[in-house]
Amino acid sequence: MKLLLTLSILLQGCFMVGTSASSYLCLASDPGDSEAFGHALAVNENYLAVGDPKANRVVLYERDAREGWIRLREILPPQGSIADQLVGGFGHSLDWNQNTLAIGTYDWLTWTQWKPKQANDNFGAIYTAKIHGDRDIVVQEMSIPPANLVMGYGVSFFGNQVAFPSITLTPANQGIQRILVVDPKTDRITRVIGAPQTPEEVTTWPQLESPPSVDFDGFGSSVDGNNNSLLIGATGLSNPEKTALRGGIYLATLEGAVQQIEFDGEGLASPQVSTAGSSVVLTDRLIGIGRLVPFGIGDTLLLRYLPDTGWSYVGAVALSGSLHAQGDQVLISLSRIAGMPSHSPPGHLRIEPDHLLVRVDAGQVVIESKIRWNRNYHVPANGVIDSEHLILSAEGQVVQIHIASLTNPYLIGSCP
Hints:
Radius of gyration: 21 Å
Structural class: mainly beta
Helix content: under 10%
Distance between the termini: 19 Å
Strand order of the largest sheet: 1-2-3-32-31-30
Number of strands: 33
C-alpha cells in the first residue's frame, strides 16, 4: 500500500502525522538521538521516559494539556559511574514508581568484549532518578557488591523496592540466574531469589531464597512488578508431569512467599521447542507470558484471575516480545526475532505484525489491532499502553496513537 502523507503539524514537542490509513503523534526528536531511541519506554501520570542506550541517556517528556508530550530534558549517568565508563547502555530498561524512575544499564555487544578491570567486577548497573518538575534530577547508582554479576537488562519496581534479573558468572563459565531486590532508601539488597548457592561463587548471599524446582539456568529471565507482587519468568523450568510446557512463572510477594503458578494450556507454538517466561507482565487480573522458539516469533500465553478459581489459562496469540498491560488489554511488541540478529538487513526478513493489541475477555482472547511499521525489514519494536493511547517505538522513532482510532490492521509510516 502506498503511503500518502496528508498532514504534519508541530504540536508542542509532538508532530501530528496523518496518512491514508492512520494518524498518530510523532514525539519530537533530537539530532543526538540514536536508532536505539525508544529501546525502553516507561510512562506515569506526568512523564514519559524514553531510553536511548546507544546514546547513553534517557530522554524525559512531560505531558501537556493537549494529550501530547513536551521534550523536557535528558537524564545522564553520573560522572565516573559504571554507565559513564561503559559509554553506552544507560536506559536499556526503565520503570516508574510514582516520580522515581529506575534505570538499567546494559549492552550485549559491550558485554561480549568486556574485560573486567578487577577480579569479580560486575557488568551493568541499576540507577534511580527522582523527578520533581524543574528541579535538578539526582541520579544515584545502586551499590551492588562485586560478584561477577551481569545486570541492567531488566528492571521493575516491587512495592517501593527495585527488582532486577541478574546472571552470576562462575569461574567455570556457568551462568546462574537470580532476582535481586534492593531498597533504594537504604541502598541494601533485601532479597535474592533463585538457584541455591554454589561453592564456585565469590559472594555469599545471606538473603537467598530458593523456591522448589528452580535450576541454575533460566530462572529470572524476566520480571514485572504490580504493587506488592512480582512475577518472575523461568525459561529453564520443566514440569512434564503437569503439561509438556517448558518454562514457567513464579509469583513473589513482599511478605516473602514465592510460589509457582501452574496452569493447563499449551498455547500455539510447539511445547517441545518453545520456552515460556522470556517476557512477563502482571496486573491484578491478567498475566501475560512470552514464549520464544529457537527460530521465529513464538507466542504469548494469557491467564486471567478469578477470586474463586485463581489463575487460569484463557488462550494464546502468535507473537512474542516485550509485554505491557492495562485493564483487560495486553500489548505485545516484537522486540526481536529469535535466532536472528536484532537488526535484519533490508529485504532479509519481515514478519508481521510488529505490535499486537489484544483484549482478554472471560473465556477468549480478542485481537483488537495488528500494527506494523512501514518497513520492508524487521526492526526491534517496543510499546506501552497509556490510558487511552498506545506509545510505540521502532528504529529511533516514537509515536503516540489514540486507541479509539486504531484499525485492524494499522500502518505506521515515518516521522518528519
